[in-house]
Structure formats: structure tokens, C-alpha cells
Amino acid sequence: MNRPNNKIMKHRFALGAFLFFCFAFPSQGVGFDAARRSMVDEVLSDAAETSSYSGSSALSPAVVAALEKVERHRFVPATLASVAYLNRPLPIGHGQTISQPFIVALMTDLMKVNKGDRVLEIGTGSGYQAAVLAEIAGAVYTIEIIEPLGKEAGERLKSLGYRNVETLVGDGYYGWPDAAPFDAIMVTAAASHVPPPLLKQLKPGGRMVVPLGTQFMTQYLMLIEKQQDGTLTTHQILPVRFVPLTGGH
Ligand code: SAH
């Protein structure tokens, strides 16, 4: 009778046990990678569905690559890591939220950021949007008004190796005059009006993306372009829902 060799059986058992553990308890990295890929697929399909609003038929390859790379689960509270790749906003404490991945992608795409650009973000929050921008731009400056959030995001971005992001705790309404002018400016909280200091800190030829409106009324994502002669053109992109821009202005 052909009896299986004991050594082979042992190896088979070890292989079986290994595979069982891989599938039953996927190492966090492997599970997150697959989840991130399906999040990007959802973002791409949202972008295709809203192309008539955004005026662009597809997200730029640089934006897609940044979304594929940045590990969103590192930017949400540990208790929410398992849902980090849902295409939706999530709470990050202090009554604030990390934006929906599709909105992050759309806003980044609208700014048409080039390698080497200097970019300002108002509302660091978790630091996720800053990380996405940092994958594409030369230098990212980001301001957060809630001190613990700003400090935590600064440490997080540093520990993840982002050397081209500068963080600041303060009121972003007034921008960052010492680092101005910027090629692009993004506001990730809803403002009642476009902050004049930010318009001043935008380079001619630059682009600003800002949600306008109040907390309880429809807000619209606006794209503002500063022409070479300094005149401004404004495009209303689509309705959105952001936490309010606070501060003393
Ligand atoms: N971009 C963030 C999410 C933004 S939520 C991310 O990727 O996670 C909006 C953030 O804007 C909040 O953290 C809020 O505290 C901050 N904020 C509101 N008003 C601000 C102001 N005047 N200056 C700077 N940050 C502000």
C-alpha cells in the first residue's frame, strides 16, 4: 500500500495551517491593500458619474496614484481602521471629520497640481488630504485651528515620512503670508465667503477650491481661478457637505 510519507504529511499540515491563518486572519497590510484598491474603484466610478459637474471626464493619473498609495487607515482613529476604506467621511474627534475619499480626489484633481507646486490647505484635520497633496506637489503648507488635531496630524505626517509638508496651528482664514504665494489653495471647511487673504496669497494663474455656504444650507464646492492679470473666474462644481470654517473673522 502506498502510505504517505510522514515528512510530506507534516509539510502539508504546516502549509495548510499557514494558508488557514492567512485567510482566517489576514495580516492587516494585505486586507487594507485590497480594501484601498476597491475604494479607489468606487472613487473612479463616482468621478465618472459626476463628470458633467466637474467638467473633467476622468481623474488625473497622479491623483489616482496618490489615492492608491496613501494609507487612509493610518489617518483615522484606531477603532475605525476597519472601515477606513469606505468611500465616506469618518469622525476624527473634536467634532471634525476626515473627508469622503471621492471629495478628496475631486478637490485635488480640480487644483491641477503640478510637481514642484507650492500648495496651501486650510483645515489639516487628520492630515489625509495633506498627504494626498504631498504625493503630487512640491511643498504642502497646511493650517489647523484645533490645536490637538493639528499637532497630532503634524506628528503623523512626520512619522509617515512626509518631508514636504509643513503644519501650523492657527486660523487659516488669514492664510500663511510667510510661505505665500501659492500655486493652489484648498479650503476643507465650509466658508460663508472666500477669505480675501487667501485670494491675495494665490499666484496669478493659480487655482483655489473652497466649499461655500453655511452648515445648515446647501454648500457648493467652488473652483476659483486667478488669471494672469489678477481677475478671478468662478465655477460652481457640485453640492457638498463640510464642517464649518471657524475662527474669529
Ligand atoms: N482635510 C481634513 C479634513 C478637514 S475637516 C482631512 O483630510 O482630514 C475640516 C477641518 O478644518 C477641521 O479639522 C477643522 O477644525 C478645521 N478648521 C475649521 N476652521 C478652520 C480655520 N479657520 N483654520 C484652520 N482650520 C480650520
Task: Using the coordinates shown, work out and report the CATH topology.
Answer: Rossmann fold
What percent of the residues sit in helical stretches (DSSP H or I)?
25-40%
Question: What is the radius of gyration computed over CA atoms, rounded to a whole number of angstroms?
Answer: 22 Å
Euclidean distance between termini CA atoms: 88 Å
- In DSSP terms, counting alpha (H) and pi (I) runs of 4 or more, how many helices? 8
Written as H for each helix and E for each strand, in order along the chain, the element string is HHHHEEHEHEHEEHEEE
Strand content is 15-25%
Strands, total number: 9
As residue ranges, the low-confidence spans are 1-27
CATH architecture descriptor name: 3-Layer(aba) Sandwich
Query: What's the main sheet like?
Result: 7 strands, mixed
Assembly state here?
Answer: single chain
